[in-house]
TrEMBL record:
Positions in coiled-coil regions: none
Keyword Transport: yes
Residues shown, of full length: 2 to 221 of 306
Species in which this protein is naturally found: Sphaerisporangium rufum
Molecular-function GO terms, alphabetical: ATP binding; ATP hydrolysis activity
Keyword set includes Transport: yes
Protein name per the record: ABC transporter ATP-binding protein
Residue ranges annotated for the ABC transporter domain, each copy included: 4-220
Keyword set, alphabetical order: ATP-binding, Nucleotide-binding, Transport
Similarity section: Belongs to the ABC transporter superfamily.
């Protein structure tokens, strides 16, 4: 599977250095946890990986190229459908069908991702009435639609009940076991160590640690 490479990445917002010369690699076939306190620069880094933000310096590459240079989306941001792309009056089914059509994806995938995310029973309800957990699931369903080899999850367990948290954990592990590249951000070390195989830890936009989880647990 493709590799995500972050090389000497830097991003500033006015006087704030959000990401400061950050370098790390995310490999396929395992879940990589992207840890750091709130404001550490995780979302900014993920946005640059997805080509949504321009770095001041350095590069973010997916499979050796900037994300935007890939003809077909190689990755999708799961759990990032935070109301931005959501049409409250449309059903979950309508959202996914729209995305499938506009991305040339077979409509049979819609039923598949609804089943995968446990949304089959509420597929015809308007998404505006969804709980946070259901909205997260819909975002993940949208992410999975094109069967992407790379998945980025930005704080996916935020606001979820224990069942939802267990579900997302299992899903991320399954996606990695299929050989995909999975990067999940969090500010919760203990929680992330339960899911991830490898941890990249940042603070103030800088790398603090980059190691397999067992190594981490021994060192702390
Ligand atoms: P994290 O995801 O780790 O919580 P962020 O990447 O969201 O961190 O933010 C990193 C830093 O950049 C913070 O200081 C944050 O306030 C700042 N920041 C992020 N986005 C913006 C923006 N659009 N405008 C100004 N400052 C921003
Ligand atoms: P890309 O294909 O580049 O990843 P997006 O999927 O983020 O782009 O969104 C492209 C357009 O589709 C945006 O205008 C966004 O508002 C809209 N959109 C995103 N998600 C949905 C959705 N689930 N249903 C309907 N429209 C959506």
């Amino acid at each position: 599977g493709p590799v995500i490479e972050v090389r000497e990445l830097t991003k500033r917002y006015g006087d704030t250095v959000a990401v400061d010369g950050l370098s790390f690699t995310v490999r396929p076939g395992r879940v990589t946890g992207f840890l750091g306190p709130n404001g550490a620069g995780k979302t900014t880094t993920m946005r640059m990986v997805l080509g949504l933000d321009r770095p001041a310096a350095g590069r973010a590459l997916v499979d050796g190229r900037p994300y935007r240079e890939h003809a077909r989306p190689l990755c999708r941001a799961g759990a990032l459908l935070d109301g931005r792309g959501l049409h409250p009056g449309r059903s979950a089914y309508a959202h996914l069908l729209w995305l499938a059509r506009s991305n040339g994806i077979a409509r049979s995938r819609v039923g598949e991702v609804l089943a995968l995310t446990g949304l089959s029973g509420v597929a015809r309800r308007r998404a505006g009435g969804f709980s946070l957990g259901m909205t997260q699931r819909l975002g993940i369903a949208a992410a999975l639609l094109g069967d992407p080899p790379v998945l980025l999850f930005d704080e996916p367990v935020n606001g979820l009940d224990p069942d939802g948290v267990r579900w997302i954990r299992t899903l991320m592990k399954d996606l990695a076991a299929e050989g995909r590249t999975v990067l999940v951000s969090s500010h919760m070390m203990a929680e992330t160590a339960l899911t991830a195989d490898h941890l990249v830890v940042i603070a103030r936009g800088r790398l603090l640690a980059d190691a397999p989880v067992p190594e981490f647990i021994r060192a702390n």
